[in-house]
Amino acid sequence: MRNGDDDERKHKCGPERSWVLIIMQGLLGIGAIIGGGVLIIDPSGSLVGMPPSLLEHSPFGSFLIPGIILLLVLGVVPMIIAIALIRHAHWGIGEKLNLYPNQYWGWTFSLYTGFALIIWIMVQVYWLQHVSVIHLFYFAWGVGIQIVTLLPGIQRRYKADCSS
In this predicted structure, what is the pLDDT of residue 8? Predict the structure, then answer.
């Protein structure tokens, strides 16, 4: 590609990356990988001070399945998204699951992650029948991911025709 074409693409699409969104996804991913990993290592929850009584209204007998879901859905996926938002990598599955074909799949998956985090917290609150500050924090984090992803400048940065 010629240098002039690069300048035209950058001018049309804006700066290449949103570091705020990348950091939000990366920190979520790191925290969920650690949290999910701990729950997988110790499904009783005692390692992190979570009594089994927290599962009383849930369909789970231990923290193993929630730990696996946490690790994969809110840990590994956001890390993949953070890397994709940096590298603008193509991924066939991601592109097929992209509900917004005019946007880069990593941008769309950022929206998905925001929804997943909000749903995760809402389900937790329902099953625990209790709201704590950490729930409010992560609910706000999910809404924050949604807001940042939907900002017009971020959308321009991650147009599908700008990801190549």
Answer: 42
Q: Nearest-CA neighbor of 146 among 113, 106, 99?
A: 113
Mean pLDDT over residues 103-124, rounded? 97
- Residue in 105, 83, 81 with CA at minimum distance from that of residue 95: 105
Query: DSSP for 76-101?
Result: IHHHHHHHHHHH----HHHHHT-S-T
Average pLDDT score over residue span 14-36:
91
Indicate whether 4 pLDDT > 60: no
DSSP state for residue 103 in the 8-state scheme:
B
| Three-state SS at 35 | helix
Phi and psi at residue 154, in whole multiples of 5°?
A: -70, -40
- State both tokens at 127: 């099953």
Q: Is residue 159 helix, strand or coil?
A: strand
Looking at residue 160, its pLDDT comes to 81
As a whole number, mean pLDDT of residues 122-147 equals: 96
Phi/psi for 89 (5° steps) reads -75, 145
Measured CA to CA, the distance from residue 98 to residue 149 in angstroms comes to: 14
Tell me how crowded residue 155 is: count the other CB atoms within 10 A of its CB: 18
* Helix, strand or coil, per DSSP, at residue 62: coil
